[in-house]
Structures are given as C-alpha cells and as structure tokens.
Amino acid sequence: MKIEEEYCLSQYQDLGKLNDRKNIWLKRHKIYGDICVEKYVDAGLFSIYDFVKKNPAPYFPVIYECIKNGDQLIVIEEYIEGRNIEEILQEKLFGEGEGAWVILEICRALSILHHAKPQIVHRDLTAENVMISNSGQVKIIDFNIAREVKYGQRRDTQVLGTQGFAAPEQQGHAQTDERTDIYSAGVLLNYMLLGKLPYQEILRGRLSPVVEKCMKIDPKDRYQTVEELEAHIKEVYPQYNDGKKDWGKIVKRLIPPGFRSKTPWKMAIAVLGYFLITWFSFTMEITREGEVIGGIAMVSEQIFIWLSQIIFVAFVCDYCGCKKYFPVLYQKNWFIRILLYVVLEFLLLFIAACLCVIKDMLIA
Known about the structure:
By secondary structure, the protein is of the alpha+beta class.
C-alpha cells in the first residue's frame, strides 16, 4: 500500500462494526464528518469498484476510496440511510405501480453497468441488495460477486449467486451477461408484489408477461437489454413514460471510435487513421478491362471500399458493442485474434467488390 493511500485511510475514524456484520465497519471522515462504510472484498473486484467510483450515479453508493492491500480490496463507500426491499417486505407488499417504478429505476442503474467497457454484470440482484433511501432513491449495493463479461468465454469460472434469484446460467451452464441481471429483475418484481419467489407462486396480472419474459430459461428468449425491459414496463404503465430520451447517452454511444474517451493521444491517432483510410480509398485508381474508370462510377466504388474499412474499424474497436454479436472475435490467443481480423478484412473487401459488380449490372 502506498503512503498516500495509507494517509487517505487514516482520515476515517472507526465507529465499530455495522450490525455485527463480518468485515464491514462504520466510519466517519475526520474532516468532513461524512458517515461511511468500510469493507474488505477480493482484490479482483478492483476494476468493478473503480468503475463505480469513476462513474458516480444516484443509483449506487458513492465510492470514496478503493485501495488494494495484498489480496484484499479496501472499499470505503457512502452509508445509505434507508431500508432494503427485504426489510420493507417485512411490513407490506409493494403495489403493482410501486414495483414497476422500482424495476424502472433498477433498469437505469443496470444500464450504466451494462454499457461499461467491458460490460459489468451485477449477478446478485436480490431484495437485500436493492435499497430505497429515506429520500426515495432506489440504489443497488454490494458488487461483491459482480464480474466483467469476457466474450468468447463459454461459462463463468465460479458458480456464484443467491438461490432463487440467480439465473440458470449462474449454475455453470453458460457465461453470465446482461440477461442474467434481467432474469434476477424478473424474480425481484415477482417477490416484491407477492412476497414469494416464482417457484413458490408466479405473478398474475398486468406485469405477469414482464416477469415471464425476464425469467425465460434460455437467455435468448429474455429481454436482450434492460432498455427493452424498461420500454415494455412503460407500455404497461404509460404514466412512467415521460416521452423524453436521454439524448446525451444516445449521442455518446454514437461518437466514432477514438473520440469517446476524449484522450488526446487516442483522438490524434483516430484523426490520422480516418484521414489515411479516406485518402487511400478516394485516391486509388479502379480499372475495368485495363482502363481506368472515372466519374460517378469510380466515386461510388471508392465509397464502397471506404465503407468496408470504416466497418472494419467499428468491429476492431467494438463500436456500440457490435462484437458481442460475433463472439468468435473474442479470442485470448493474439495470433488467432489477428488472423480473424485479417479474414474479416478480406471478407469486407470481397463484399465491397460484390457490391461494385452488382452496381455495374444494374447500370448495364
């Protein structure tokens, strides 16, 4: 541990264990007076907690410190004043409208994790890990079994999850991804409205189709994204549809590769790369039967070639998560990965050539 990290930890006063829970302590910042929670988790979770720290959102506790100490990770996070869903259910069940609203808030929270690079899956979305603060804000806590998705991997390396809430793939049958959290969201919705898990009693009513689709055994049959789940709930409860789109998020996803991170050296390489692709594509001479063609015919074929290279860049840089639809491109072996990219490059050039031929046939 670095000296500056030891200094940061020394700024928190120990207030004792939190409800006698193992490895979780209440702390108070000596200068600002903020009440915090300190916990010790596996050091392998550093990238998860670091992402939450660097991407603060009202749906997660604020992460103040995230420090590696050997094989442990010391996390100091916001103490949330409120109750988890399990505690609320001890008093009363949620109404349909209340349950729908909670799931919508959870969808917004999960959207942040699922759009991380690489994608983060919570994997433990339970009644105990979703809190409603005293101010009414829904918050997801406990990232202790969260993981980053590794496309191309057949299954998780560890079988983890809470019985009843965990998706079938968490039993080692396949790799978990965003659809795993969607399964748990369906279970949680059923649990909030009935106080029972689906295997005990399945929900009937307006939200029944939502629960059933979330909980399909085959992930391909579930909602594929939390945005799809959110849209369906808003169809059932139009009052939650404010008609507004998060244009900021939409625009950010559409920013070309190389510019999204706003890192100067990456942007410089991107500018140079796009310039070279454009220059090579629109300065090359295209011949037919030994003669150089010109005019609109040449420009249209140059455009096909330019598009093929732009698409190639999109795949290499995983633009808008396109690589997840082609998991074969995720290979641990660098040689095989490069070989696949070479094959992809020739395939795209072949498609461009075919389009040129088709264009000539239509003109003729």
